[in-house]
Amino acid sequence: SNSSTVRQHLPFIFLTSNTDTQQAIVLIKEGADDFVNKPFEVGELVFRIRRTIKEKQNQRAIDLFNTRLAKDLEAAARLQRTLLPKPLTEVHDVNFGWIFNPCDEIGGDLFNIFKLDNEHLGIFFIDVSGHGVSSALFSFALSKILSPLPDQSSLFREYAENPDSASILPPGEVAKHLNNRFPLDTETEQYFTLLYGILDRKSQEFHYVSAGHPGIVYHAYNSSPRIISVASPPIGFIPGFEYQEKIIPLSSGDRLYIYSDGIVEAGNNKNQLFGEKGLTKALAESRNSPLKDTLQFLINGLNQWLGQTKAEDDISILGIEIV
């Protein structure tokens, strides 16, 4: 109400002849900012009034800052969600689904799916170290480099000598360019992991590289999910590192899952990690469900397992299914 708003910013100092300390505490709890015992010195009263007014002004400035910050974070969160994959309505032989749950208003996870040409889809997943504003700012900067333009992708277009005759760069070359462009910053100690792959829709093969990223989950149709890990450093850790390309042959009904470490490293109040076991178990239990339902089943199970414990890192996962 208006009266409560006015009261919030007006200082209240009680003059009292009661010297009982407990009574003074009651006055403070009921809304007094300060109290002065009678008889009082005018100088002391003036000092307390000025101090209380200053404290009120400082608190109001903090409240205004927090309000503006909350609005800015909400705007940043809306902006970040615009960077998530757009529907590929013309692609009918591959299904996609994803979940993006930053642990704060904004996070450091970034992923996308896009057409490289009529036969190839580019897929990347980046996890910036840390979380919150600093990680989100880094991921915003990366999105400008990695996110595709209409009918083109900066992943190959940027490095082509002649954009009109640009060819698709292999995943290893993309990782190499990024590794050279983003050396580890020793001052901020901020870095990112990467999984970048090209899905060949004709041959049904997924060619990819992993730079320090969690292992990809390969869930073949009528089989158990398994994690394929690649030992490699994050982007920028080792100058000149040669990232080796891996290939996963796919068939109709097969699924791939790319995720951030916030899922497997989520810890509950018993200091237990959800782990790769929890991840593959949830995916296996919901294998017969549509892809998006499987992802939601996983997140629901993770949240139930966490209980009242808040996730300390961003939780994101991208699913790919061959139709």
TrEMBL record:
<feature type="domain" description="Response regulatory">
    <location>
        <begin position="1"/>
        <end position="53"/>
    </location>
</feature>
<dbReference type="InterPro" id="IPR001789">
    <property type="entry name" value="Sig_transdc_resp-reg_receiver"/>
</dbReference>
<protein>
    <recommendedName>
        <fullName>Response regulatory domain-containing protein</fullName>
    </recommendedName>
</protein>
<dbReference type="InterPro" id="IPR036457">
    <property type="entry name" value="PPM-type-like_dom_sf"/>
</dbReference>
<keyword id="KW-0378">Hydrolase</keyword>
<dbReference type="GO" id="GO:0016791">
    <property type="term" value="F:phosphatase activity"/>
</dbReference>
<dbReference type="GO" id="GO:0000160">
    <property type="term" value="P:phosphorelay signal transduction system"/>
</dbReference>
<dbReference type="InterPro" id="IPR011006">
    <property type="entry name" value="CheY-like_superfamily"/>
</dbReference>
<dbReference type="InterPro" id="IPR052016">
    <property type="entry name" value="Bact_Sigma-Reg"/>
</dbReference>
<dbReference type="InterPro" id="IPR001932">
    <property type="entry name" value="PPM-type_phosphatase-like_dom"/>
</dbReference>
<dbReference type="Pfam" id="PF07228">
    <property type="entry name" value="SpoIIE"/>
</dbReference>
